[in-house]
Design goal:
Blueprint: H1 3-16, H2 21-31, H3 35-51, E1 80-81, E2 84-92, E3 96-102, E4 110-116, H4 122-136, E5 146-151, E6 157-162, E7 167-168, H5 169-176, H6 180-199, E8 202-203, E9 212-217, E10 220-225, E11 232-233, H7 258-262, H8 269-285, H9 297-306, H10 320-330, H11 342-354, H12 365-375, E12 380-381, E13 387-388, H13 393-408, H14 421-438
Antiparallel strand pairs: 1-2, 2-3, 3-4, 4-6, 5-6, 7-9, 8-11, 9-10, 12-13
Helix pairs in contact: 1-3, 5-8, 6-8, 6-11, 8-10, 10-11, 12-13, 12-14, 13-14
Length: about 450
């Protein structure tokens, strides 16, 4: 089997392995009609279920995608795990089960416990231990909290996690018909949480809607990033067992980056940026940019690898040029052309919310001036087009920002070193009006 065909088989297997057995066939048929591929994947699934050696269940059992009827515990459900009383199984995979449990007094809170099955293989055990090490590094309000870790009387490791009672980010956006601003606000929460992981040398590698959960706290939507089961520690001073075989596909096909699919570049933090960009597109547009119903696997891979991201079009009253620029930067095919970090991606989303210039846009003077004027509601013009300012520190800060932007970009239209606040603001207005006058045929209007 050649390398590309192996990747197709591997991708389908990863996509369906944690689904209930009764739903696997339909999902495989959606991904490919190649009989040989279907046969190979089915053989891999059968061997996986029999040997109980590969992979732990997707933590999406904590939220979206849970088939409650199909989530039968295997092996039989214990009454307790450590000091925790088991209430029910939330779901299970080939080598582990996630349970809903209750902590003892005085907390008595609901928790989720991930337990590895007795007889799990060495590789599965090593991956589970690696996930425990990853989770131990993370302490952020946007990441499912780890309460406890331990070992059962039979010697099997378990992890006690915050129970996330919520829905995926895409389901939340659809159910509540969120506008673009509310969606961007949720995504900035995601970027802060994932950036926290990146700063601790952790790459998630499987960011997708079911791993981005929305919960309610004090009537406010709060994001929780879950499932670090495929995360990678990149600490250069740390030696760790090699847990990924050569050419092995890690992640979820529909939210994978070109470097994950091709294997040409090692995934890094910008791989997570790409995945969040795809999720943001789906939240805004209501559909995945590259996945189509009844699609084959190879056409989908080809689109992810070669086709540019489609533009956003369905959201009303949306700053379409800026959002498309942000999405294009985040989801660039070439990893070097993306935002250099999750932090920078989040900053640009916040710039959009705050009315500041978006860094993904070309920093043209007219664009900078227009953003400055739109966000500064205290700026008014009388009939003679004279500029008036309220004596307000925020307004002064706004003008200082505009002055700095002109200076940083070397634009000669304003001598920012010799002008007062009022003069600088007036110059910004004049510059914008000059550009608008030239573009009236395209609908631009002077202020």
């Amino acid at each position: 089997m050649d390398n590309m065909r192996y990747k197709e088989v591997e991708a389908i297997f990863v996509e369906v392995v944690d689904l209930p057995v009764t739903r696997r066939g339909d999902r495989i048929a959606e991904l490919t009609q190649d009989r040989e591929l279907i046969q190979i994947v089915q053989q891999m699934l059968d061997e996986n279920d029999l040997a109980d050696q590969e992979g732990f269940m997707d933590a999406s059992v904590l939220g979206e995608g849970v088939d409650w009827e199909a989530a039968e515990p295997t092996p039989p459900m214990p009454e307790r795990i450590g000091k925790y009383a088991i209430l029910k199984a939330l779901g299970h995979g080939a080598s582990g089960t996630v349970y809903l449990a209750q902590a003892p007094l005085p907390l008595e809170r609901m928790v989720a416990i991930k337990l590895l099955h007795t007889g799990a293989g060495e590789l599965t055990m090593a991956r589970f231990r690696e996930e425990q090490r990853v989770l131990a590094r993370l302490q952020n309000v946007g990441i499912a909290e780890v309460y406890d870790q331990g070992v059962t009387v039979l010697g099997m490791p378990f992890t006690v996690l915050e129970y996330i009672d919520g829905v995926s980010i895409t389901e939340h956006c659809e159910q509540n018909r969120l506008g673009w601003r509310a969606i961007i606000e949720l995504m900035t929460q995601c970027t802060r949480a994932v950036s926290h992981a990146h700063q601790r040398n952790i790459i998630h590698r499987d960011l997708k809607p079911s791993n981005l959960m929305v919960t309610q706290k004090n009537d406010r939507a709060c994001m929780k990033v879950i499932d670090f089961g495929t995360a990678k520690l990149t600490d250069p001073l740390r030696t760790a067992p090699h847990l990924t075989v050569e050419s092995q596909f890690i992640g979820t096909l529909t939210y994978s980056s070109p470097e994950q699919l091709s294997g040409n570049d090692a995934p890094d933090t910008r791989t997570d940026v790409h995945a969040l960009g795809l999720v943001l597109y789906e939240c805004l547009e209501g559909k995945h940019p590259f996945f189509q119903d009844n699609d084959g696997l190879k056409p989908m891979i080809d689109r992810i690898m070669t086709q540019p991201l489609p533009t956003i079009s369905s959201q009303p009253n949306i700053p379409i040029r800026e959002i498309n620029a942000i999405l294009s930067r985040a989801c660039a095919k070439d990893i070097s052309e993306r935002y250099s970090s999750m932090l920078h991606f989040g900053e640009d989303l916040q710039n959009l919310l705050s009315g500041l210039p978006v860094k993904a846009m070309r920093p043209r003077p007219a664009y900078i001036a227009r953003k400055f004027i739109r966000r500064n509601r205290l700026l008014t013009l009388n009939e003679e087009r004279e500029t008036h300012y309220v004596d307000n520190e925020r307004v002064k800060d706004e003008v200082k920002f505009a002055r700095r932007m002109f200076a940083d970009n070397g634009w000669p239209v304003i001598d920012v070193t010799r002008r007062s606040i009022e003069e600088t603001a007036a110059a910004v207005i004049r510059l914008y009006n000059e550009r608008a006058a030239r573009g009236t045929r395209q609908g631009a209007k002077p202020i």
